[in-house]
Amino acid sequence: MRLRRTGGWRVRSDPVRGRRQALREEAGYWRDWIRDRGGRWHADFDYRFDPESEVEDGALRSVLNEAGADACILDVGAGPVTSVGSRYEGVPLKVVAVDPLADEYNRLLASAGLEPPIRTEQVEGERLLSRFGAEAFHIAYARNALDHAVDPVVIIEQMLAVLRPGGYVVLRHRTDEAIQQKYVQLHQWNFAAREGRLIVWRPGSETDISAQLTSRAEVRCYQEATDPGAKADEADPGWCVCLIRKLES
């Protein structure tokens, strides 16, 4: 695997190389999370396994306000248990959760004797259209997942393709997470909100998603602090949140 340095960190010249090991490490993280019932993130564990949990993500709630509680939601890169929630305003949600490591996660859950409210299906983000077909969902959601991809731009395009016209892609990622994590394991891409535009980048590659989708979608991107009322800074840049509304063909 070829590595090069940027800002004192080693960055893979090709994000595909070393991916097998990184995927093993990702599975190991979730193995420990399942074994320890979330550990220090026990509140997240309890939320995901609660069949009565209400949607917490403010961006997702804003979209559901428009789409309605009967909207069908695709959670991309969901991990072993979706973080979307099980209900919206008390109404059970229709959620399809997918992840490229789902089979391994389901084995871990079975070994731990755990049954998730919504089971994750093994589907790669690059193959959403072939698996589900066009216009299958009202909302496609990803939280801290696409920065792990070989090419997140391809997955964003796939998420848009499986939406009905007027539907939304909702993306929530830690701002410039690859920098924050020093490009270790699967952290090979950065998401950033720049003047309302979504930029996906890494050394040697940068895509303005807002410009790429200009004729097919309305894109709104903004910065959100980790804690309400807090101010994002270099130590904690907060969240990059993006709402992409698919236009009529």
Written overview of the protein:
The protein has 249 residues and is an alpha/beta fold. The protein is built from 8 helices and 14 strands. The protein has helices spanning 19-35, 42-49, 58-67, 102-111, 128-132, 152-161, 177-180, 209-212, and strands spanning 3-6, 9-12, 72-76, 87-88, 91-92, 94-99, 120-122, 137-143, 163-174, 190-194, 197-202, 205-208, 217-224, 239-246. A hairpin with a 2-residue loop joins strand 11 (197-202) and strand 12 (205-208). The longest helix is centred in the N-terminal third of the chain and has 17 residues, at 19-35.
H/E element string? EEHHHEEEEHEHEHEHEEEHEE
The strands making up the biggest β-sheet line up spatially as 7-6-3-8-9-14-13
Unreliable runs? 1-10
Rounded to the nearest angstrom, the radius of gyration is 17 Å
Percent strand equals 25-35%
Give the termini separation. 42 Å
Summarize the structure in short:
The protein is of the alpha/beta class and 249 residues long. 27% of the residues lie in helices and 31% in strands.
